Amino acid sequence: MKKTIPSLALGLAAGAFFFTGCGPQSDEASSSASSKPAEVTIPDAPDAAMKTIFTELSDGNGGILWQAMPASYQADINKIVQLAGTKIDAELYDQTFALVGRLGQIAGKQKSFIVNTALMGQMEAAQKQQLEDGIPAMVQVLEVLTTSDLATIASLKTFDGQRFCDSTVSELAKLSIELSKLDDSEQPTLEDLSAAEFSVLEQTENSATLTMKVAGESDSAEMVKVENRWVPIEMATDWSKNMSEAIAGLEAISPEDIAAQKPQMLGVLTMLDGVLTQIEAAETQEQFDQAIQGAMMPIMGLMMMGQGMGGAPAMPAGPMPTAP
Questions:
Q1: Residue 147, C-beta contacts closer than 8 angstroms, at least 6 positions apart
Q2: The whole model's pTM is what?
Q3: Residue 199 bridge partners (DSSP)
């Protein structure tokens, strides 16, 4: 856990924006987006601020992560996501992540074949049961991602981080808690954050050193105040540089290069779509395993050509704790 938990609150907010999907928003997701969590007052004291953020997050309030960010950081993220909407090829973007949505639906349908496939290697009965119990929650995660506000190029162009955190990140936080209940490891979970204890070792007007105890672990964190918000010093130090690099990366995307590679990439996507059709249609374990093996080639093709899509650069999310 060393040096991971202190960056969680703001790091998760920044990193979450690029777990994206595709497809029309479901009724459930639309309802979630409309029920905006009540705005929480974040205290001025650094220890109390972190306690509030962690408690709200453990309760499934993803909107607190956006509230915890300095206003200029919020503006930077909105700007970059909206810029991505003007630079990424719409057809490739939408079609690629539409396949992710199909994958989730098929995983739910073929759960038994997934658990018993020989391609997973030898698993004990308890491991198989844990995998089977976890698949529905993982399918829900994919559904949340593939019906998010980043679902299409059109929605990227009007992206609003507060709305995204209120809806999508809140749903992911709740699902993370559910998934953690299926894990028998001693890794700290989002639910553990509500019991985190913070104290101030040193503090000046714009800096503070905090100690934190959670799930039997103790750590310290250097924080700085940016526009009345306390953030990890590493994030504050690198923010401007990372934002500039992200914008430069998007601006450098060449429509001509994408157009040259697009036919080949669409061909790979078509192959993968066909493989998913075979996986969905499998009626025996042997048919399922053969279809999975057939997916390897198009997946490798996508990985090799992924940079040619003009995908958005990664956000400076900072170190993250291992997800359950």
A1: 21, 23, 24, 25, 26, 29, 101
A2: 0.74
A3: 211
Place of tokens 């374990």: 285
Per DSSP, the residues of 124-152 read: -HHHHHHHHHHHHHHHHHHHHHTTSTTSS
Q: Cβ(33)–Cβ(167) under 8 Å? A: yes
Pairing state between β 207-214 and 197-203: antiparallel
What six digits make up the tokens of 207?
């800096």
Q: What are the pLDDT digits (tens) for 180-234? A: 777 666 666 777 778 889 999 999 999 999 999 887 788 899 999 999 999 999 9
Contacts of 250-255 with C-beta under 8 Å, sequence gap 24+, read 250/80, 250/83, 250/84, 250/87, 250/312, 250/313, 251/83, 251/87, 253/87, 253/88, 253/310
Domain ranges of the chain: 5-232, 255-308
* Distance separating alpha carbons of residues 97 and 272, to the nearest angstrom: 12
Cα-flanking dihedrals φ and ψ of residue 220, to 5°? -125, 160
Q: Within a 13 Å sphere around the CA of 324, how many CA atoms are in the beta-carbon half?
A: 24
Supply 291's token pair: 């279809």
Q: Distances from the Cα of 81 to the Cαs of 164, 203, 313, in angstroms?
A: 12, 35, 10
Distance between CA atoms of residues 166 and 307, nearest Å: 30
